[in-house]
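User:
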Amino acid sequence: MEKIEKLKSFLAGSPDDPFLKHALALEYIKLGNESDARRLFLEVLTRDPSYIGSYYHLARILERAGETENAKTWYEKGMAAAKLAGDGHAFNELQAAYGDLID
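Assistant: Predicted structure:
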Protein backbone atom coordinates (compact mmCIF):
# COMPACT_ATOMS: atom_id res chain seq x y z
CA MET A 1 0.00 0.00 0.00
CA GLU A 2 2.92 2.33 0.60
CA LYS A 3 3.80 2.29 -3.09
CA ILE A 4 0.20 3.07 -4.02
CA GLU A 5 0.12 6.02 -1.63
CA LYS A 6 3.37 7.37 -3.08
CA LEU A 7 2.05 7.07 -6.63
CA LYS A 8 -1.19 8.81 -5.64
CA SER A 9 0.84 11.58 -4.05
CA PHE A 10 2.89 12.04 -7.22
CA LEU A 11 -0.31 11.99 -9.30
CA ALA A 12 -1.75 14.78 -7.17
CA GLY A 13 1.06 16.98 -8.48
CA SER A 14 0.93 15.62 -12.06
CA PRO A 15 -2.60 14.31 -12.60
CA ASP A 16 -2.17 13.65 -16.30
CA ASP A 17 1.15 11.83 -16.16
CA PRO A 18 0.64 8.57 -18.11
CA PHE A 19 3.65 6.87 -16.52
CA LEU A 20 2.31 7.44 -13.01
CA LYS A 21 -1.20 6.29 -13.96
CA HIS A 22 0.18 3.20 -15.67
CA ALA A 23 2.36 2.39 -12.66
CA LEU A 24 -0.56 2.84 -10.27
CA ALA A 25 -2.74 0.59 -12.44
CA LEU A 26 -0.09 -2.12 -12.28
CA GLU A 27 -0.06 -1.86 -8.49
CA TYR A 28 -3.84 -2.19 -8.43
CA ILE A 29 -3.58 -5.37 -10.51
CA LYS A 30 -1.19 -6.82 -7.94
CA LEU A 31 -3.85 -6.21 -5.28
CA GLY A 32 -6.60 -7.72 -7.43
CA ASN A 33 -8.27 -4.34 -7.92
CA GLU A 34 -8.82 -4.68 -11.65
CA SER A 35 -11.68 -2.18 -11.83
CA ASP A 36 -9.45 0.72 -10.77
CA ALA A 37 -6.63 -0.60 -12.95
CA ARG A 38 -8.98 -0.77 -15.92
CA ARG A 39 -10.17 2.79 -15.31
CA LEU A 40 -6.60 4.09 -15.17
CA PHE A 41 -5.48 2.26 -18.32
CA LEU A 42 -8.51 3.68 -20.15
CA GLU A 43 -7.62 7.17 -18.93
CA VAL A 44 -4.03 6.74 -20.13
CA LEU A 45 -5.03 5.49 -23.57
CA THR A 46 -7.79 8.05 -24.04
CA ARG A 47 -5.38 10.87 -23.31
CA ASP A 48 -2.28 9.34 -24.90
CA PRO A 49 -2.98 6.56 -27.45
CA SER A 50 0.76 6.23 -28.06
CA TYR A 51 1.35 4.87 -24.53
CA ILE A 52 1.73 1.37 -25.90
CA GLY A 53 2.39 -0.54 -22.67
CA SER A 54 -1.14 0.08 -21.40
CA TYR A 55 -2.83 -1.73 -24.29
CA TYR A 56 -1.57 -5.14 -23.28
CA HIS A 57 -2.53 -4.79 -19.63
CA LEU A 58 -5.97 -3.38 -20.41
CA ALA A 59 -6.70 -6.18 -22.86
CA ARG A 60 -5.57 -8.80 -20.32
CA ILE A 61 -7.97 -7.34 -17.74
CA LEU A 62 -10.76 -7.52 -20.28
CA GLU A 63 -9.87 -11.14 -21.08
CA ARG A 64 -10.03 -12.07 -17.41
CA ALA A 65 -13.41 -10.33 -17.17
CA GLY A 66 -14.71 -12.47 -20.05
CA GLU A 67 -14.96 -9.48 -22.40
CA THR A 68 -13.29 -11.26 -25.31
CA GLU A 69 -14.47 -8.97 -28.11
CA ASN A 70 -13.47 -5.87 -26.18
CA ALA A 71 -10.07 -7.43 -25.43
CA LYS A 72 -9.57 -8.20 -29.14
CA THR A 73 -10.33 -4.58 -29.99
CA TRP A 74 -7.73 -3.28 -27.52
CA TYR A 75 -5.10 -5.73 -28.72
CA GLU A 76 -5.77 -4.56 -32.29
CA LYS A 77 -5.52 -0.91 -31.28
CA GLY A 78 -2.29 -1.67 -29.44
CA MET A 79 -0.80 -3.46 -32.44
CA ALA A 80 -1.67 -0.48 -34.65
CA ALA A 81 -0.11 1.95 -32.17
CA ALA A 82 3.03 -0.20 -31.83
CA LYS A 83 3.36 -0.45 -35.59
CA LEU A 84 2.96 3.31 -35.95
CA ALA A 85 5.63 3.87 -33.30
CA GLY A 86 7.98 1.32 -34.88
CA ASP A 87 7.99 -0.72 -31.66
CA GLY A 88 8.43 -4.25 -32.97
CA HIS A 89 8.86 -5.78 -29.53
CA ALA A 90 5.54 -4.42 -28.24
CA PHE A 91 3.86 -5.34 -31.52
CA ASN A 92 5.06 -8.94 -31.20
CA GLU A 93 3.89 -9.21 -27.59
CA LEU A 94 0.47 -7.83 -28.44
CA GLN A 95 0.21 -10.04 -31.51
CA ALA A 96 1.11 -13.16 -29.49
CA ALA A 97 -1.48 -12.38 -26.82
CA TYR A 98 -4.06 -11.64 -29.51
CA GLY A 99 -3.23 -14.93 -31.22
CA ASP A 100 -3.65 -16.84 -27.97
CA LEU A 101 -7.03 -15.20 -27.46
CA ILE A 102 -8.44 -16.01 -30.88
CA ASP A 103 -7.14 -19.61 -31.00
